[in-house]
Design goal:
Layout: H1 6-23, H2 53-58, E1 60-61, E2 68-83, E3 97-109, E4 114-126, E5 138-154, E6 157-166, E7 188-197, E8 200-209, E9 227-235, E10 243-257, E11 260-276, E12 280-293, E13 296-310, E14 319-327, E15 337-338, E16 362-372, E17 377-387, E18 395-396, E19 402-404, E20 413-425, E21 430-441, H3 443-447, E22 454-464
Parallel strand pairs: 13-15
Antiparallel strand pairs: 1-2, 2-3, 2-22, 3-4, 4-5, 5-6, 6-7, 7-8, 8-9, 9-10, 10-11, 11-12, 12-13, 13-14, 14-16, 16-17, 17-20, 18-19, 20-21, 21-22
């Protein structure tokens, strides 16, 4: 397509970097960009008598009654080059491809009881020799458009109704995520109640998934073909006791597994215990699923652990950690029981930006290291071992599509993946990341005719404002 040309990409990126470099000295250094941009609060700039032009676009007063509007956004460019995509099953792309994502939002606080947030998104791709999906390419959509009604605005006891199109993110994002890694972030049309107090946050919601289209403004509001509802409670405890999440999530939509396709109504109940300090961090999560898939019953589960320790007194403050996941797969074909775990709406780059396999029917062991080369530069590396949990279930992509159904192949060994990345945080506004992935296919992939090593190199430049 002609929307992005690689030559124009470099010119556009160079212009934006020069513009930002020339003005960054004047910009506010006390900003903190969050994953959910609607959670940012710039009302403190109201009392800044030395506010520059940037602070004025983050807090622009509108008359009286504390009414103000705040503007922001993001520009992200990515270049990817894969060798042997699909382990040799997909066409070779010798020069790689470029992806571009633009996000722009306006946050209007009408008064202390009502707030409206609007955000548009444009995601484009150029240079790829494979058909693009709406996850990669969506020229323009209303990504978020919702209103907050503060039913009780006391900080120590706040109740809020959030109504409209919005991003959802819960816990470690293993089940509900904004899908930051891929080009197009995901959103939901939702009716949502949020209650917060000092050590507690409780969400209850009903939503429909926004099915992204490949044309301009072609997304339907409240399309009930994919429904999600539930409740998520987070308890923040003392420093000696881990924090805890408890949740229930329900979905209703079409699904496909090795035993066939059909309508699925699935219920997930889970808990998460987590803690993060300067040295120690851990995150344990367990989920059980039940429900109905076509004429079959659902019985599935997953357990995950992520633990690390940082040596603050050693040069570069290295952190060593290990992740592990046990994700159930179908035990027996055509037995009226589906044991394949469904990760619902997980983060897209689940096992790195390469996004080669998804969290279904999987056992993985994932040691990693992270080193702070300077205050602005971080280097990280990990090595992941993958096996199928069940020999009678297949291998899936991140979006749930089958890579192979696994029938008549009994090896569990999927393969190993080495990942490395270098992140450079120039300032609060500008970030770069360089990532390399090597996937060494195991016996199962060789048996299915996918025996070539995959190599991926990715470069990301992100500007937030």
């Amino acid at each position: 397509m002609a929307a992005i040309k690689p030559g124009n990409f470099l010119k556009s990126l160079h212009f934006m970097l020069m513009l930002l470099s020339g003005t960054s000295i004047l910009l506010a250094q006390d900003v903190e960009f969050k994953l959910l941009r609607y959670e940012e609060d710039y009302s403190r700039f109201k009392f800044d008598s030395s506010a520059n032009w940037y602070k004025k676009i983050k807090y622009l007063p509108l008359g009286t009654n504390n009414s103000y509007v705040s503007f922001g956004g993001e520009v992200r460019y990515q270049y990817f080059r894969y060798k042997n995509p699909g382990w040799g099953k997909e066409p070779e792309d010798l020069d790689g491809f470029v992806m571009n994502r633009l996000l722009s939002h306006a946050d209007w606080h009408i008064n202390k009881h009502v707030r409206i947030f609007a955000q548009i998104q444009s995601s484009l791709i150029a240079g790829s020799n494979s058909p693009s999906s709406p996850v990669d390419e969506n020229p323009l959509d209303i990504h978020q458009l919702f209103a907050d009604f503060f039913l009780s605005a006391r900080p120590e006891n706040q109740l809020m109704l959030k109504l409209g199109r919005q991003e959802l993110s819960y816990g470690s994002q293993r089940l509900i995520s904004v899908r930051e890694g891929p080009n197009n972030r995901q959103a939901f049309d939702a009716l949502r109640f949020v209650f917060t107090r000092k050590h507690l946050r409780a969400d209850a919601f009903y939503s429909t998934y926004v099915n992204a289209g490949k044309n301009i403004l072609d997304e339907q509001f409240f399309d009930r073909s994919r429904q999600l509802w539930g409740s998520y409670i987070t308890v923040l405890l003392t420093t000696k006791i881990p924090n805890m999440d408890v949740y229930y999530l329900g979905i209703k939509n079409k699904a496909a597994f090795v035993d066939g396709s059909g309508m699925e109504t699935r219920h997930s109940v889970g808990t998460r215990m987590w803690k993060k300090s300067e040295k120690i961090a851990y995150d344990f999560e367990a989920v059980y699923q039940f429900g109905n898939f076509s004429a079959s019953k659902i019985r599935a589960w997953t357990i995950s652990l992520n633990a690390s320790y940082r040596f603050k007194t050693i040069l570069f403050s290295p952190a060593f950690g290990v992740k592990s996941e046990l994700i159930s797969g179908d035990k027996k074909h055509d037995d009226g029981l589906i044991n394949t775990f469904n990760p619902l709406y997980p983060r897209g780059a689940y096992f790195g930006l390469a996004s080669l396999i998804g969290p279904y029917n999987l056992t993985d062991l994932h040691p990693y290291i992270q080193v702070e080369l300077s205050r602005k530069i971080t280097w990280a590396a990990d090595y992941d071992f993958f096996w199928r949990m069940s020999r009678n279930d297949g291998l899936y992509e991140v979006n749930g599509s089958l890579i192979h159904d696994g029938r008549d192949f009994y090896s569990k060994n999927i393969g190993n993946q080495l990942g490395m990345d270098v992140s450079l945080k120039v300032n609060p506004f500008l970030n770069f990341q360089l990532e390399f992935t090597w996937f060494d296919p195991g016996k199962f992939l060789h048996q299915t005719g996918r025996g070539k090593d995959i190599y991926m190199t990715g470069v990301t430049a992100t500007i937030r404002y």
